[in-house]
Amino acid sequence: MKIVAVELREIRLPLVHFFETSFGRTTERRIVLARVVDADGAEGWGECTAGEGPFYSEEWTETAWSTLRDFLAPMILGREVERAASVFELMRPVRGHRMAKAALETACWDLETKRAGVPLWKHLGGVLSEIPCGVSIGIQESIGALLEKIERELDAGYQRIKIKIKPGWDVQTLERVRARFPAIRLMADANSAYSLADAPLLRALDEFELMMIEQPLAHDDMLDHATLQRELRTPLCLDESIRKPVDARHAVELGACRIVNLKLGRVGGHAEAVAVERVCRERGVPVWCGGMLESGIGRAHNIAMATLAGFTLPGDVSASERYWAEDIIEPPVTITPRGTIIAPEAPGIGFEVRRERIDALAVRREVIKI
Hints:
By secondary structure, this protein is an alpha/beta fold. Helices cover 34% and strands 22% of the residues.
């Protein structure tokens, strides 16, 4: 495989409903798409999952664009690459910027598997042809609105409900949710909104029989999470703290978590995701696929990743219609009445990219060539 051109597009994609976390509220996604083209004219697509500002991580739309254009794309252009799994190594001289790297790396996997005529998920070593799905529900205007939204998602068939929490939107909120839905699979995601000083409040969440509490403490912490986990009956799940395979190993050995949320962009693409999944699976730690409000291209890559054997819990990979009035892939992602997604059998990511839709949404475009 020899990449001769990288095309970057920034699209603006409005959400059908705002999504609010402890970081703030999002109403529209600014998404950087990467298209790679090889010497034979074959193409592959990837998506950068960085947010609109440097809040979830230090990466955001503007840093991703310039890093991709000025540093990462030139590192892969014109290089003879035996396989997509080697692309991450070509970009290793750039420290961090894993979401930007993932945009190019995943695009190369799409290209490679399209050329080979095989579905990406099978090429990755996936074994789950049908993946269980949950939903992530942001902070709502009221608890009543939250309860109504949970009801709709359960009626749609989703197997697990995740709600965002923050100080002031935690114990009372979960108490009301559990009273209304006593038997559902429920988890809470704090997005680093608490500190170890909040341990008494977090211990109070044990009574709600949650599947897990996700990333309650600092985004780069493991030691305080290990201390907190010893005080809780509820499993802790790490998200932001796990950026590479060695982080997963350290977290498990320290006892900082019992579950890992694996996000494709956060770890730098498929090769690193496969390595993190293997670290966790060999140590008996379940993983699940987290979401970053991806368009259909990123969602398709998530589906492929979530077919790996270690993904034993319902992830955040849900239907396109939950987020977008009109997606950029065809067909849109849908779920079965069982609350699952069927892995596609078509080559590559398994969905057709709608170029005309991307053209209509694009606010800037740049092509980097040899």
